[in-house]
Amino acid sequence: MTDRVLHYYQTITDPEFARHMIEETGLNEFQQGIAWDFRETTGDTQFYADRAMLPVKRFNETAAGIHKRLMDELLRLALIGWRAEQKK
After folding, report:
1. How far is CA 58 from CA 10, 22, 49, 50, in A?
2. What is the pLDDT, as a whole number, of residue 12?
3. Which terminal residue of the chain, N or C, has fewer Cβ atoms less than 10 Å from its own Cβ?
4. Is the Cβ–Cβ distance between 71 and 78 less than 8 Å?
5. Which of 83, 31, 78 is nearest to 58 (CA)?
6. Do residues 52 and 29 touch, judged by C-beta distance below 8 A?
7. Which residue has the higher pLDDT, 87 or 28?
8. Residue 13's pLDDT is what?
9. pTM
10. Closest C-alpha among 48, 52, 45, 8 to residue 30
11. What is the pLDDT of residues 28-80, one digit of tens each?
12. How far apart, in whole angstroms, are the C-alpha atoms of residue 15 and residue 69?
């Protein structure tokens, strides 16, 4: 896990927004656990793979799916905000 990616998860934000991003975006419970782990702990890829009890390759595939889902939600929310700004 790169420091850059962890930074995104660990950036201080409104707790309700963090909860929304992890618990209300279609991630399953296992994926949510990994996302919360990214937010609350720091380590390398092997550290997170061990905590998830997955081989590194499978962990990386799972993490990529989590990242994609969260990026999709960020883009959706950004588009809503951008459209609201255009109406001002």
Report:
1. 23, 20, 8, 11
2. 80
3. C
4. no
5. 31
6. no
7. 28
8. 86
9. 0.91
10. 52
11. 999 999 999 999 999 999 999 999 999 999 999 999 999 999 999 999 999 99
12. 19
pLDDT band at 86 (very low <50, low <70, confident <90, very high): very high
- Is 43:4 a contact under the CB 8 Å cutoff? no
* Residue 41: its H or E element: none
CA proximity to 10, closest of 32, 33, 42, 57:
42
Kindly list the distances between the CA atom of residue 65 and the CA atoms of 5, 70, 81, in Å, as whole numbers in the listed order: 14, 9, 25
CA distance 46 to 78: 33
According to DSSP, residue 58 is labeled H
Question: Which residues, 6 or more positions from 27, have their beta carbon under 8 angstroms from its beta carbon?
Answer: 35, 66, 69
